[in-house]
Design goal:
Radius of gyration: 31 Å
Strand order of the largest sheet: 2-3-4-5-6-1-9-13-12-11-10
Helix content: 40-55%
Structural class: alpha+beta
Low-confidence stretches: 1-8, 277-292, 301-311
Number of strands: 17
Number of domains: 4
Distance between the termini: 55 Å
Shape: elongated
Number of helices: 18
Amino acid sequence: MSLRAVTPKAILEDHVTLEVECIDRMYLNGYVPRLQTVGGVVNFFRKHRGEAMATGTRMSEITVAFRRRIDEFAVQNDIPAIHFEKHQRKDEVMAAHVARFGRPEGVVFIGVAQEKSRVMRTIKRKARDGRTFPWIIDGTAMVNHVYFYCLDAECGPFFLKFCTYFPYTAKLCINGHEYLKRQLGKREIAYRALDNGVLECADPASMRRISNRFTGEVIERLFRKWLKRLPHPFTREDHQAGYDYELSILQAEFSLTQVFDRPVHGRLFFEQVIRENLDLGRPDQVQLLFDRRVTSRTPGRFRTRVVTEGVIPSIHVYYKNTHLKQYFKEGRALRTETTINNSYDVQVGRKLANLPALRTIGFAANRRLLDVERISYDCTIGQETLEQLGRPIEVHAQRVPSLPFHHSRVQALFNVLVLFLLHTDGFRAKDFRSFLAPLLGIDPAQLTPGRVSYDLRRLRLRGLIERIPHTSRYRVTPTGLRIATFCSRVYARVLRTGLSTLDPARSDAPLARTFFTVQQQIDRLSAHASIAA
């Protein structure tokens, strides 16, 4: 096997037979906007329903009617009902029922589970004259939730669950890969399924177009379609008065699946990148991976974790509530997926209309992770280039100072360039200063604009960075990335580490012991030569 055939960069270029970029699991919140505050609940009962006041009795009447409609719906349609046990895996129950369902669309079964939820409830308060009156408060309680596990002809399996207590929030869970499989089947495009993915496809271009059509409009249409079919607590008059459900995004998973021609190629790539990228969870790496600034006041933990289950490892990178995971799936495919659990972490709203913005951020994070992993092994530079770094040159009649890579300031410059490879929109001088100063051990305010301009100028004239046309921003060039990666890694992992082990005082260093032994042998040889003479 040639050298190119086993390098990680070549593996991703030459041995990936199928690449699928798709929204994976989405978990959405269904809520009635006008019932999210205590005042809104009071208006619902007093102004809309004409009650004297909002009481627990009135809420209970709606709940009882809602549960009765669910029971009648199950009996009329011969739908089995299941009470979930604690820690029972609901997806496994769904898979077992779907296997024997036998229809392309319908309610597979109804599940009931007790879970904590935000609810509106009433308490008694005393007036000054001693009389008591009901008072609505916003809190949480353990209440029954009803799951409708369904099959949809367009989107495949999903569930829609309702809290059975006021204000009756709903949750919708849907999977983009299931939508993709259903649409491929409808178009009679041959494919082989992977667990929660696609292994082979006869028409990859059409598959990519179908994947891109899984949008907020598709999800909204599915939600409205099944709201009309399933029992829910609100009447037609309530809807006409504006008490209708809307969707917001609680969790969204964005996945990139790369299928390899031979499993060994995928394992080779993944096992090598694990060793090289254990520092991806550091704040200075994470903030660039997600294009978001991390400060000392930023909440959350920023870390990288390698988990091994059996012999299958996985990489986990965390940014606030956002989780980027990479693992080798079923021995055939590399799965990279970004899960955004709180859209505010990436400065995007939660409404379903913001799905395109989240999609861009999630898929970009996946690609950036792969870019970081590939560049770790694609950083060879020539001897002439290395020699030029250590001496001044002239570019367009301008003298450009040297960049001796063993100098601490030059190493700081190279480290900043490696970090900025993750910035798709480039970087400004002030961004450059904010990252360079900590590496030099000084406060950014101590780094003058003139000094920053000097560093940017010599990097630009040497071709390591370039100015983005018509802007004041810069971006790292491919040459700059190779030089910065090679020089920073050689310095940190070979020169600095290796030279420290040559200290004769370090008797615990294997390299120092070896050199000491060599020196002893040379001394003995010299002594022996003197005696012979």
